[in-house]
C-alpha cells in the first residue's frame, strides 16, 4: 500500500486526500461503535457518576472529550491510578458537544465511562485508534 501511495504522490500529488480519507473512516468506525455501545452496553455519564463508578473499579474504558478541563482530567486520571485493575483511557477527538451527539443525547458529555461495551467492539477500536 505504501508503494502505491508513493507512486500516486509522484504523479498526482494526492497524499493529503489519502490520509484524510483514512482518518474519516477511523472516526466513522469509532462513532458507529460508540452508538452501538450506548444502545446495548452499560455506560455512566457525568462527572460525579463517573468518579463514583471509578472508585468501585467496575469500569473498562474512560472516554474524555477533547475540550475537557485540565483539572477534571487530572482528577479522573488520579482516580484511575488508585485502582488495582487497569482502566483504559481515550481522548475523543471531538468536543463535548460531538461526544454527546454521537452518544445520542442532546447535551454535552465531557466524560463517559464504559462498564460493559455490549455488542460493540469499542474496546478494540479504541486500542487501534
Features:
129 residues, alpha+beta, 60s Ribosomal Protein L30, Chain: A, 6 helices
How does this model look, in words?
Helix 4 links the parallel strand 2 (61-64) and strand 3 (88-91). The two termini are 19 Å apart. The protein contains six helices and four strands; from the N terminus they run H-H-E-H-E-H-E-H-E-H. The chain has 129 residues and is α+β, with helices and mostly antiparallel strands. The model is unreliable at 11-21 (pLDDT under 50). Helix content is 57%, strand content 14%. It is globular and about 35 Å long. Helix 3 runs parallel beside helix 4 (70-81). It has a four-stranded mixed sheet with strand order 1-4-2-3, with helices on both faces. The chain has a single domain, classed as Ribosomal protein L30/S12 (60s Ribosomal Protein L30, Chain: A), CATH 3.30.1330.
Count the E strands.
4
The total number of structural domains is: 1
Q: CATH homologous superfamily name?
A: Ribosomal protein L30/S12
Q: Which parts are unreliable, with pLDDT below 50 for 5 consecutive residues or more?
A: 11-21
Which fold name is given in CATH as the topology?
A: 60s Ribosomal Protein L30, Chain: A
Query: Strand content of the residues, in percent?
Result: 5-15%
Biggest sheet overview: 4 strands, mixed
**Mean pLDDT, nearest integer?**
82
- CA-based gyration radius: 17 Å
Under CATH at level 1, the class stands as Alpha Beta
Tally of contiguous helical segments: 6
Q: Could you say which structural class the secondary elements and strand pairing correspond to?
A: alpha+beta
The backbone outline, from C-alpha atoms, is: globular
Order of helices and strands: HHEHEHEHEH
Strand order of the largest sheet: 1-4-2-3
Amino acid at each position: 500500500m505504501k508503494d502505491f501511495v508513493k507512486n500516486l504522490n509522484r504523479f498526482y500529488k494526492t497524499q493529503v486526500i489519502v490520509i484524510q480519507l483514512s482518518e474519516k473512516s477511523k472516526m466513522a468506525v469509532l462513532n458507529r461503535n460508540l452508538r452501538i455501545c450506548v444502545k446495548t452496553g452499560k455506560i455512566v455519564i457525568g462527572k460525579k457518576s463517573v468518579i463514583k463508578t471509578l472508585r468501585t473499579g467496575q469500569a473498562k474504558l474512560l472516554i474524555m472529550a477533547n475540550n475537557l478541563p485540565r483539572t477534571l482530567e487530572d482528577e479522573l486520571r488520579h482516580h484511575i491510578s488508585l485502582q488495582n485493575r487497569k482502566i483504559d483511557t481515550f481522548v475523543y477527538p471531538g468536543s463535548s458537544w460531538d461526544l454527546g451527539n454521537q452518544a445520542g443525547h442532546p447535551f454535552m458529555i465531557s466524560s463517559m465511562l464504559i462498564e460493559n461495551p455490549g455488542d460493540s467492539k469499542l474496546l478494540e477500536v479504541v486500542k487501534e485508534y
